[in-house]
Amino acid sequence: MSYRRRKNQDPGNDGGVKGPSSALTSFLREQGINAENIRSRYERSLRQSEDVPDTSGTTTPNDIGPAEDEPQEDISINLQLDSDEEEIEDSGEAVQKRRKVDMTISSVGAMIFCLECDQEFNLSLNSKKIEKYGKVGFLCPSCTKIQIRRDRLAKKHEIEARKKRKRVAAALLDKKQFKLPSLQDICIHVISDNIDGVEILGDIGNHNKIKISRILAKNRSLTNRTLTLFLDNDTKELELWDCSKLDKSSLDKIPAFCPQIEKLILNMCGQLHNDNLNYFGSKLTNLKHLELNGPFLINNETWQNFFESSVAKNLKHFHLRNTHRFSTDSLVSLLENCGKNLESLTLSRLDGLNSKPVYDLLPHFLTNIKHLELSYPHQENLIDDDLIIALLALNCESLETLILDKCSGLTNRILSEGLKLFGAKLTKLSLADLDQIDDTGIGNLFDDWKINHGLHSINIERCISLGDKSVFKMLEHSCETLVQLNMNSVKNISKHLFGKLSRTTVFPSLTSLDVGFVRSVDDSVLAIISRICPKLEILEIYGNNRCTDKALFRENLTVIGRQTDSI
Hints:
Helix 11 packs parallel to helix 12 and helix 18 packs parallel to helix 19. Helix 16 links the parallel strand 10 and strand 11. The chain is α/β, with parallel strands linked by helices and 567 residues long. It folds into four domains: 63 residues, no CATH class; 174 residues, Leucine-rich repeat, LRR (right-handed beta-alpha superhelix) (Alpha-Beta Horseshoe); 103 residues; 73 residues, no CATH class. It has a 13-stranded parallel beta sheet with strand order 5-6-7-8-9-10-11-12-13-14-15-16-17. The chain has 21 helices and 17 strands. One of its GO terms (biological process) is SCF-dependent proteasomal ubiquitin-dependent protein catabolic process. InterPro entries: Leu-rich_rpt_Cys-con_subtyp, LRR_dom_sf, Znf_Tbcl_Rhp7. This is DNA repair protein rhp7 treble clef domain-containing protein. It comes from Pichia inconspicua.
């Protein structure tokens, strides 16, 4: 036997073998605390109380012993404890638990707010109690059903979930829900996967041809040979979203095989040569809509020749992006030859446009514009408040879309002196990266903006000076009509905004929402958004690390960007 055990051993111990005992029992024995001592003390106190005479006279405080103040239950001791099975019951915790249960039962029927989605509801015995966000509360009936269904599904289909994970992740990147494809979609994908063996698509309709074209662009499979599958004499709309593998001779086939074409979209068309554009200007006599992205081989002289052609003078829609060779002379030629007929115009990322006086010519020619995009100018001072206000004043009866992304020279003046007065018909507004637009400007615009009956699309991405007050006024004004909303990186938005929206506002038409890098968005905000946006299909939350896979939202809502989502 060790020295420590001999030292702590009871002197009266006879050294016999004993059964196992708990650590608490051993500790009490070492401290001299046992049932016999407690019983002796208790009997001694009873004998002393019997020896005290019963006096009916008046007593003073000094006559009252401290033992009489203690409640009887405080000295009640379980004398039946065995040395091997001693228990300690924390009566304080038990009483507290009973009080909580009684309080819950007595609160049935009270109006409380759901801990998850912040919806007010009547508390019932069926309400599910949870602990979340450092709080203890109850779920409303809708969230309770979702939670119960989620708990059941979590125990099933684990193997199937692993197999589907990659396909679900791929669908999320495409902003789609993972579901069984239709027979038509299956056929389209089979054709796309075996496009090298297809000699003719046949009469499948222009809509399906556009679908196949987009799939080929995504797979980088649009080549000189596959291009001919989309060309025929009856084609009026042609969308080619990846022309990087199409050479000069293939691009010449477009007007040769499709002389009736009215709408032409060529994306990533870096191989479009001067001769190609001149050929378009001589053959596509019915062309009304031309959209080019990346035609950096077209020089200034060719642009002017094209705009002077009879084809260009019939253009109603012209969209140009990503080229440094479209100069000020090219823009002047465009305005002089096509400006009066244009209904939509896009000038984006054109580094060759570096003259402010040429930009100032826009209001003199654009008087019937419906869709206008002036974005990412080469220099900040090229597009200023006076230019935009003049364009709004001249096109107030027709302008429906205004995109001014990265025109960082603009201030609150375009809101108070432009949109507030002349934005009656506006339905789409994009002000991304306008760092001089602040809370005051947006708040004043949407506060009592009676001439406008609601916007369908709003983009305030990276408008870092906006906060809860102005954003709430904006959403309150257009909540009934909004279909798309982008608030990415508006970092000053707090959780208080979503709590206020949850009790005052509903977005019946909103289908797409981006709140990425809005750090206040967490699982409870996702539940609120899911409830107040009943038709929401796509919700992007990139960069919000407090959004987890435990968030409760509708099954038909596609949430993209959670860190917990993995392939």
